[in-house]
Amino acid sequence: MRVLLVTHEASRSGAPRVAVLVARALVEQGHSVRVLSRAPGPLLADFAAAAPTSVEFLYRVRRRLRSIKAARLLALFVDTLLVTLTLLRRQPDLVYVNSTAAAIYLRPARWLVRLRVLHVHESGSLAARFLAAARAPRWPNGVTLVACSPSVQADLAALTGQSADAITMLPSVPDESQVVRQAAEPPDHTYSADELVVGTCGTVEHRKGADLWVEVAKKVRLELADRPIRFVWVGDIVQPVSPNVQNLNVEFVGPSPNPYAHMRRFDIVTLPSRDDPFPLVVLEAMLLGTPVVAFAVGSVATQVGDAGIVVTPEDTDAFASGVVRLLSDDNERQRLGTAAHARVMDHYSTSAFAAALVNLIHTVSVSRK
Question: 205 and 186 in contact (C-beta within 8 Å)?
Answer without folding.
Answer: no
